[in-house]
Amino acid sequence: MREQQIKWLLRITILLLGLLTIYVFFKLYNIWAPFFLMFKAIFIPFLIGAFITYLLHPIIEKLHRTGVPRPISILIIYLLFFGSIGYGFYKGIPVLVNQLRDLSENFPQLSAAYSEWVDSIHDQTNRWPNGIHERIDQLFAKTEAWLALTVENVISSLKGIFDYMLLIAIIPFLVFYMLKDYDQIKKAGWYLTPRKWRSEAIQFLKDIDRSLGNYIRGQLFVCFIIGLLAFISLWFFDVKYPLILGLLIGVTNIIPYFGPVIGAVPALIIAATMSTQTIIIVVVIILSLQFIEGNILGPLVVGKSLHMHPIIIMLALLSGGEIGGIVGLMIAVPIVVVLRVMILHLVLLRRQH
């Protein structure tokens, strides 16, 4: 009994010391912050390069299994991936800059038209019960605040991209050497892992890749197709700023359930400043895109690769949105998948020992 008490006392002491260490660490933020920023600036290109390598490697292996030599497979996929991205930037950046400039110049007129539209809705719903009327006003206020914050974040992100342009230019070279030396990197990871953990670590990584890899690759492909279709549809019907709206719809589509709603809001706001007919066209486009994703692209490309109940996904999204906003919504599901695999492995290890 006494030994049990000593063990619990030791565990509580270790926990308190750990919490105290974390508290002191954050109190010393001004000391280690410059080193952290420098480390982050250097580490992020490697992280992005590793992620792109992870996405491209299975495609290279499939091409290699068809009889194409591995160096040639790497070169083909590498050139296709970065060539298409480079061409997209070459053609798209000038258009995007022009649309952003036009949006900035016409913002007062758009704001006035939007305010007029909101006032008309306010007058039409004025006779509704007070609770519903107030909720509609609150919804518009929250939407406006979210849109303002999103625009501010996009602008700051673009500025950050230009600040780190040199580091971003390194990413294609990192990806090429990571793809070329993929087997050597795996061997290095094998030797760096303690011998007693190697088999469990390999199985853990395989389970994560099986649970998450196909989902991420499929979801990114679906987002690209949906964004492209949104851009083409909005451009065809002469909706203003089709490239900006197409990018927003494509990027936010990575968020399950909530993504289509978030991506549709800016498009509907722009449409509301144009005409009622444009609003109807945008609504039809959004619904059509969701039908294509839900009934064709989703089942065909992504499928049910997560094997998670929708309630768990919804709870993960709500938690991620509360903690990290839009970014939290985007990474919530992958984090939950990794945590689920980790918990299953810990339970299995505990049963074995």
What would you say about this model in short?
This protein has 353 residues and is mainly α. It is built from twelve helices and no strands.
Description of the molecule:
The protein has helices at about 1-25, 30-65, 70-105, 105-125, 130-165, 165-180, 180-190, 200-235, 240-250, 260-270, 275-300, 310-350. With about 350 residues, it is mostly helical. The protein has a domain at about 60-120 and about 135-190. Helix 2 crosses helix 6 and helix 10 (about 260-270) packs antiparallel against helix 11. The relative contact order is 0.07. The mean pLDDT is about 75. It comes from Metabacillus litoralis. One of its GO terms (biological process) is transmembrane transport. One of its GO terms (cellular component) is membrane.
* Principal-axis shape: globular
Q: Compute the average pLDDT.
A: 76
Low-pLDDT stretches are none
Radius of gyration, CA atoms, in whole angstroms? 25 Å
N→C terminal distance: 23 Å
Sheet having the most strands: none
Q: What letter string, H or E per element, gives the SSE order?
A: HHHHHHHHHHHH
Briefly note the structural class of the backbone.
Answer: mainly alpha
Q: What is the helix tally?
A: 12
Helix content: over 70%
Report the count of strand segments. Answer: 0
Strand proportion, as a percent range, falls in under 5%
Subcellular location: Membrane
Transmembrane segments: 9-26, 32-56, 68-90, 161-179, 220-237, 243-272, 279-303, 323-349
GO biological process, one term: transmembrane transport
Keywords: Membrane, Transmembrane, Transmembrane helix
